[in-house]
User: Fold these one by one.
Assistant:
Number 1:
Amino acid sequence: MALAFDEYGRPFIIIREQDKKSRLRGLDAQKANITAGKAVSRILRTSLGPKGMDKMLQSPDGDVTITNDGATILEQMDVDNQIAKLMVELSRSQDYEIGDGTTGVVVLAGALLEQAEKLLERGIHPVRIAEGYEMASRIAVEHLDHIAQKFEYSVSNIEPLVQTCMTTLSSKIVSRCKHTIAEIAVKAVLAVADLERKDVNLDLIKVEGKVGGKLEDTELIYGILVDKDMSHPQMPKRIEDAKIAILTCPFEPPKAKTKHKVDIDTVEKFQTLRHQEQKYFNDMVQKCKDVGATLVICQWGFDDEANHLLMHHNLPAVRWVGGVELELIAIATGGRIVPRFQELTPEKLGKAGIVREKSFGTTKDRMLYIEQCANSRAVTIFIRGGNKMMIEETKRSLHDALCVARNLIRNNFIVYGGGSAEISCSIAVESGADGYPGVEQYAIRSFAEALDSIPMALAENSGLQPIETLSAVKSQHIKEKTPFCGIDCNDVGTNNMQEQFVFETLIGKRQQILLATQVVKMILKIDDVISPSDY
Ligand code: ADP
């Protein structure tokens, strides 16, 4: 009962409306929480690795997502349980910080919880387990630093970077042309990277997709792609050395803003008004030409008559361009956004080597490529694919690859994938356990066992015998003292991950271990769950 007594012996209630709340305490609370966490992790386990399965999720409004990305699966699952939400949060933090390894981190957390359950059953106090896990994670992270290898790349030799990005893509739908996509990701990141400060601003990389074509047609554009076309079909489709006026003001004669009445009762009056309007617009066009603009990009629309006049005066224009795109165009071309027409001056024009319009397939879809921009740091990746789901999944996979490339530029240390880093850490943690005389020793050993669950899941998903495969690789590690051996998921014939070029970033792996430990410790320390009951 949550009834307590004050110093005078008077009873008082700590939790109001107790009958309406359900409550779990002590071991029951921990076990229920562990079960919830494990359930989430079990969902993702089958998605891990190059032979992992995809999940199909349908949103309430009927949109279908097919994905292999841990963070996306959990995000769209709409979980209700509080502990399950913690696991979703775990995957999300890995995504924010690192961008890759979102499935692995949840699988590891699930394995740690499973081991903790066994320890609880043996009567070990949860706090001791949490402490043991903390010690073990420290040993594992230190060991990672020990086995990590420096990774050399240069702008002229990007192949090592491409290989690492390929590892993350190998488990996705796009694995069919992972080399093309990985190369695009690396080139895009290098184009916007500041190699001296080791910094990459991923906001400068715009990812666009259009249904149609093949995945192989995906391309990197050193500039901006706008999903718009020239306002008139007879305007030129290619402009070289373009000087671009970027307008957020209306490009037409001003309309009266408040109510005015214009009496037009004769043809002459109508003609005069028409001429006035035409002259006004002609003056605007002339002003654009006088400042030297050869292309006008406008946030607003203009009517057909204005459009015709623009064509007639040989001034190409694009209308209804979104605010975000306008900003990117301004950044890339070194131009300024002009909010009032009177303020248009030559120095506010953006400069681009080529602006061209390209049409796709048999449809009337056209897009505008703005390339060789004065400030060429903004790039666009243009994804093609058979259907919308494919394009969305490619965008997510590309995001992972971009993050891996960025992480490598920030810190160019790698560890080997295919579970080899986990096996190596597991051996180190296991042997480190003997150094601790307390009960924590058991927790440290369990941590080592939990690390083994990653290679086991990889083996299981690839149709191999998990226990046999793992024990063979583990003994190989101990015998040969090499940290490269992992699970040969693709049946290449060697389990040497160095030869297979399966790399992962050191910071990504380190973050996985640290985040998973942190969440599991948090879950273990909860011994009272108070929630509104169902009735
Ligand atoms: P995450 O979302 O955690 O990145 P993935 O489904 O991408 O999950 O799987 C990543 C795991 O698959 C990593 O442990 C990685 O080492 C492993 N992996 C990727 N490619 C290969 C490969 N060719 N052979 C063996 N293991 C691989």
Number 2:
Amino acid sequence: ITVLGLESSCDETGVGVVSVKLAGDDSGNVTLLADEVASSVDEHARYGGVVPEIASRAHLEALVPTMRRALAAAGIERPDAIAATIGPGLAGALLVGAAAAKAYAAAWGVPFYAINHLGGHVAVDALEHGPLPPCVALLVSGGHTSLLHVPSLGQPLVELGATMDDAAGEAYDKVARLLGLGYPGGPVLDALAKQGNRDAIAFPRGMTGPRDSRHAFSFSGLKTAVARYVETTHRRGEVVDRADVAASFQEAVADVLSMKAVRAATDLGVGTLVISGGVAANSRLRELAQSRCDAAGIELRVPKPRLCTDNGAMIASLGAHLIHAGAEPSSLSVATNPALSVQVSQI
Ligand code: ATP
Ligand code: MG
Ligand code: FE
């Protein structure tokens, strides 16, 4: 059967289509048929962050065209089921997407599945690397930084720990702003860091002290340290080497994230680590995580960058897994929830 996924929790309108086998040899295998994304990121750039009102309006305008493109790309007139993000995210943005998904489901007479965006970020990996074994997932995005235990398909995710303050992507965006690099900060900082020396400045590794929580993160101290470094350098009348700052900042983030993620997988005795969310696109994080996983004998799975950031395919992927696991469709009266907890997600 085909499952269409609709994502609208932030500034991307995503419509993805997958097919899933419900019986037979390769039962549970999910194949990507279409992945169309329209982003309003350029409209937010001059404000230095996502403006909720602009995002909602952009979803309204992009929804039907993106839906049409995805159906055409998948070569279908209508899917057999619809899955849509109902949280967490921006209230207005979620409402636009979820209302549209319910309307399509009612008009086409197909079942509707309410999806947790964060579970989608993890489930997307199955599109590229096959069904997920029991694993630890590091979810690193613009709004979240969490270590999750994914016991097995069909079971709720367990949050082992999360950031106490800024999300990793948020730290990237704030530091990029500080260095005058524009928004979103991740990709620009990642590129600039390649020209710098990652050992130039010793930035702090938050939450890594002996009494700090094993699976929690903190990035606001790092952000402050970067700000203080830039200020001090200016005050001395010296020029800030932005590439060195970018590389040293990136090293601090990637070091803590990869160390804690690999340690969590080892703690829990699982053989697989999945890294997902926008920051999983980061080149240094991928590199460090790979070498540490190799050393620990853990399989690392990271979706390709396009699937790491928000898209409809990840919602379709989780929807397909739920359907395959025998989940009941959601009621069309299910409400969106901007603060939906990651632990409610089924995968
Ligand atoms: P959430 O999923 O928590 O609701 P979101 O959906 O807005 O948040 P994503 O779209 O998954 O987040 O990720 C966006 C974030 O990823 C931004 O903060 C961006 O700076 C960051 N990012 C993107 N590419 C990179 C990169 N190469 N290196 C570091 N960060 C990156
Ligand atoms: Mg985004
Ligand atoms: Fe996201």
